[in-house]
Amino acid sequence: MARQKLSDTELQSALGLLPGWAIQSDKLHREYKFPDFAHAFGFMATSAVLIDKMNHHPEWCNVYNRVTVDLTTHDSGGITQNDVELARVLENIAGKLA
User: Residue 68: which CATH number?
Assistant: First the structure.
């Protein structure tokens, strides 16, 4: 069952609670920078377990100490509450590894 795409007002409200996140190419976007590759990879590995339980997988990329994340719900054609919830999960994990 697809989630409903968030309105512009809902998106702006969500962004207010997600420092460092922005809308880029109609996706929730954030680039994390960690002290080194091990921390960046650790963030991805730790996140993967929770992401899989949510069954809502990000578009992400790792280059050395950076992890770039884009979130969208393809079935809904945009950003949904699932994306916001996943962004919160990622923020929590990143905060513990920084």
Answer: 3.30.1360.20
Q: How many helices (DSSP H) and strands (DSSP E) are in the chain?
A: 3, 4
Q: Which domain holds residue 34?
A: 23-97
Here the tokens at position 29 are: 């976007």
* Inside any domain, residue 32: yes
pTM higher than 0.85: yes
* Distant-in-sequence, close-in-space partners of 90: CB < 8 Å, separation ≥ 6: 30, 32, 47, 58, 69
Write out pLDDT tens, residues 5-54: 999 999 999 999 999 999 999 999 999 999 999 999 999 999 999 999 99
> Burial, 42: exposed, middle or buried (Cβ in 10 Å; 0-12, 13-18, 19+)?
middle
Q: Note whether 71 and 57 are within 8 A (CB).
A: no
Question: What residues does 61 pair with on adjacent strands?
Answer: 68
Please check whether residue 86 lies inside any domain of the structure.
Answer: yes
